[in-house]
Amino acid sequence: MSEHIFKGKVALITGAGQGIGFEIARQLSLQGASVVLNDKDAQLAEAAAIQIQHDGGTCFPFPGDAADPVFIQQLTNAAINKFGGLHIAIANAGITLFGDFFTYPAESLKQVMQLNMGGSFLLAQSAAIQMRKQGTGGSILLMSSVTGHQAHRQLAAYAMTKAALEMMARNLVIELSPYKITINAIAPGATLTERTQTTDPDYDKTWSELTPLGKPATTADIAHAALFLVSPLSHQITGQTLVIDGGWSVVSPSPGDTHFQKVQS
Question: Catalytic one among 9, 139, 158, 231?
Fold first, then answer.
């Protein structure tokens, strides 16, 4: 991919204070895009933007709640007011709330659906309205998960929202294609981030054993796929989901899966 393939493009990305979102924002910026970086945590958003600027990119922090319809419009307006337009929108913000199906709280279900589905839908809507107005097309990317393809213990609500995002990408092909707007999704599998390694010190070891390619993804692995799907190189790809999981969803063993361990032994 060309070093400046995104030169002159304006991108916004939610939930990008750290992890996968941050790396996508960083790579977009270093390849020429002007990036509006959102995170609910204002300190994280500010620090992430400063780091990207230090690395030589153009990045403007805009903290706030990506599940709030009013804020979503403010976020889109920020990109337009700061950089003059909007060409790429990435709905990366999401939450994972584990829980047993039989006791899963209604409030947790509401939170997961409101951000993962509602926030993504409204960002896509707001961005598409601006892209349609500009008349030059654009790219929208949704953040799904391998759990939208394969069952994972205690993640029924989360998995439901991720599968829904993939259907949203498919459905919106009908409405967005006349305006040269592509919409796709990526579905990361196990990925080494600050969060996963903090919550599980054995995360790397566990998922290296469970992943056919022998290691979990890095944030750079996911970002490379994301950049491809919002770049001119993929202008004929829309309504698709790209799974990035080192082959895990083909065999789908879970941590503690005694049947898989017995088969492997």
Answer: 158
